[in-house]
Design brief:
This protein has one domain (4-318): Aldolase class I (TIM Barrel, Alpha-Beta Barrel). By secondary structure, the protein is of the alpha/beta class. Strands 1, 2, 3, 4, 5, 6, 7, 8, 9 and 10 form a ten-stranded mixed β-sheet that branches. Helices cover 39% and strands 16% of the residues. The structure holds iron/sulfur cluster (SF4). Residues 28-31, 33-35, 37, 45-47, 83, 131 line the site of iron/sulfur cluster.
Length: 319
């Protein structure tokens, strides 16, 4: 299956999208924060990112969901800074710091994608892309001209502007979307974003309309579709049942669903006593059983899958 962005490039639509993205950056409304700063003049808003994307690291990653990892690993590109900024972020030192990371021009970002492809990546996985969606798309023509042909993964908190997502239609093959908070009170308290639940629900509906449920190839690798991540939180801060119910009501039973139990206090979590606990296996199992009963077809195996993947990767390195 050919990635969607190839056709968009050949039709000339990709260049039109790049032009539109540049207009958006000139008075930035790329994400729901709507800072309206001139990023084209290197001004920055909440996301602390100016004209160019900043890359914290890139490599093959074997800890992602198995349909993304395949044999070669997921080619992850971690962007620095974030437009959401959860206080308990597990990547706090990258997402919420004043440090400037390596800025990359479009041709350098294209080079990174091609390097990951050369190393055997199964896909290009843009981690925390919402504030640099414009820069990602801008890098694509060069990458395509140099031979990029892997599926593109948009690995997002789901705090995405609808207009930005609409411009990504025909560019992104796989959406990997978080479902973080269902309560405006919690999203305000832990991420200063009262509108997160409303924005994320709308975003997930748009992503599903674009790419649908997951499509796997004969080797079980995802080629297209929506994958949902839900991190279980202490004291049900994420609103787990309500999120499952939302997906169920939307008839999204063919998405890949990863209910995650690996929450641990990080970042500024120690300022909130309720964020200091962890999630038990029993809590995880109860939610997974509930999701099965609701009819979700592709449910991640959880920690046991991560353990098996690590063993496989370790064994492959040894022999
Ligand atoms: S992308 Fe950054 S500057 Fe633009 S609206 Fe969002 S947080 Fe503000």
């Amino acid at each position: 299956m050919e990635p969607v962005y190839i056709k968009t490039y050949k039709s000339g639509e990709l260049q039109k999208k790049i032009a539109r993205f540049k207009q958006i950056l000139s008075n930035c409304t790329l994400c729901p924060r709507n800072c309206r700063v001139r990023r084209t003049e290197n001004k920055s808003g909440v996301c602390k990112t100016g004209r160019l994307a900043q890359v914290a690291s890139f490599d093959l990653h074997f800890g992602e969901e198995s349909p993304l990892v395949g044999h070669g690993g997921s080619g992850t590109i971690f962007f620095a800074h974030c437009n959401l900024g959860c206080v308990f972020c597990q990547n706090y030192s990258i997402s919420q710091t004043d440090t400037r990371f390596q800025e990359v021009y479009p041709n350098q970002l294209a080079f990174i994608m091609l390097e990951l492809q050369k190393k055997g990546a199964e896909n290009i996985n843009f981690v925390t892309p919402s504030h640099v969606a414009a820069q990602i798309v801008e890098a694509l023509p060069e990458a395509i001209e140099q031979g990029l042909d892997l599926p593109l993964v948009y690995n997002t908190s789901s705090y995405d502007a609808l207009n930005t997502l609409k411009l990504l239609d025909g560019v992104i093959d796989i959406y990997l979307a978080d479902t973080k908070f269902i309560s405006p009170g919690h999203s305000q308290k832990y991420a200063h974003a009262t509108d997160y639940p409303e924005v994320a629900m709308q975003a997930i509906q748009e992503m599903y309309a674009q790419v649908g449920g997951i499509v796997l190839d004969e080797q079980g690798r995802v080629r297209k579709g929506l994958m949902i991540r839900h991190l279980l939180m202490p004291e049900d801060i994420a609103g787990t049942e309500e999120w499952l119910d939302f997906l169920h009501q939307q008839g999204m039973h063919d998405v890949y669903l990863n209910i995650m139990d690996q929450y641990h206090p990080a970042g500024q979590a120690d300022e909130f006593p309720e964020l200091m606990n962890r999630i038990s296996y029993t809590q995880w199992e109860r939610v997974v059983n509930m999701a099965r009963k609701m009819g979700f077809k592709y449910i991640d195996e959880g920690s046991s899958r991560i353990f098996k993947q690590s063993l496989r990767h370790f064994a492959a390195k040894l022999f």
